[in-house]
Amino acid sequence: MLGKLAGWDDTIVALATPPGVGAIGVVRLSGNDAIHITNQLFPSKNLLDQPSHTLHVGLLKKDGIAIDQVVISLYKAPASYTGENVVEISSHGSPYVLEKIIQALTAGGARLAKAGEFTQRAFLNGKLDLTQAEAVADLISSNTEASRKHALQNIRGGFSSVLKQLRDQLLSFSALIELELDFSQEDVEFADRTQLYQLIETAGITTTQLLSSFALGNVIKNGVQVAIIGKPNAGKSTLLNTLLNENRAIVSEIAGTTRDTIEEILNIDGILFRLIDTAGIRQHTHDVIESIGVEKSLEKMKQADVVLYLFDVTEMTTAELLVLVNEMNQQQIKFILVGNKADKATDEELAEKYSEIPVLFISAANKRNIETLKQRLVDQVISENLQQENTIISNARHYEALRLVDQSLQEIKEGLDNGIPGDLVALDIRRCLHYLGEITGEITNEDQLDYIFSKFCIGK
After folding, report:
1. Are residues 283 and 405 in the same domain?
2. Is residue 312 within 8 Å of 340, Cβ to Cβ?
3. Using one digit for the tens of pLDDT, what is the confidence trace for 330-385?
């Protein structure tokens, strides 16, 4: 674990609750002098003599003038979030009062914290590894049940434990192989090459599974872009309104009513779907504004994770759909064919008309098969059960490092196959350990840490 970086022995302060008026607000301090600085403003009792993990009620005063009646929470090092002395001051939630408290604390010797500095100190003091620290930010920004569970599992060390087990095993073999180099004249082997080969095989499988989980992790973290595409008056806006259960888009019998893209968010089974209602696509239009909308529709279709192609079952022919399916497949677009206005024909007529193509038939106006459509959307982007406690990666930094780990494992395996000397095997293992260390933070630098923690909120 990294040692303390230069300039990290001072005491920091920040508002830990969201800005604005509220019932209470919390000001947090962390550092060696956190309790001492607070004690200067709290004449009710001597906080320096109080045990850790205790609450204290009294007036907070500056120059003998009361600022507010507060509750002070004490957490003494190392039994705190940051591993340092931590004080949390709960006051009334007036922005003016909170600002006065922070001003008094900075006048007493604290400095304003940078973004993510509390969690960064927790990392530097060994309370969290880097993956757990990043999961803190993910938990704060989580907005679905799936993203909350995923972030919480990583805070509890789900991802870290997988990496630690792999790293410990590789370290053990690396030490044995390097020990062999000290006895090279005796021509002995301390490291069982068969066991090492088995470890590399197992590690490769684990790494591949983690890399494969990134697509799902990205869905959990960032949601899914869904473009609703189709000809004018196919019912795209009606479908959007039905999915959202509100009148968000203007619905009209006049073709080309939707001139611009409309984006809304729908939560289905803990996954955020970013629905994009686009202008109807038709080959020729003399309306300049409508033609711009059509161009935007085509652009959104190419950017989308999934395309809902909506068509009117009373107008679209099988031949037209076959051409469309072929084009979508050629462009490797994930799509769902949705036949709208299915209430205007019988199930038998529809099945016979579109027998060559898998189509989901709905009636957006009558809400027919809408729940089936929602489930089909989930099935398109999720290949595994979110309720399972599988380790999933959603961080692009982790993905890139794991890709290098996987590459290093392949090089170790090839080296063993080719019978390369132990010193070269040890070099390959050390490279693999380096990439694993970059993920968890055993190997990092100050610039990298500043970038990672700059994305946190100030009070965390």
Report:
1. no
2. yes
3. 888 888 999 999 988 888 888 888 888 889 999 988 999 999 999 888 888 775 54
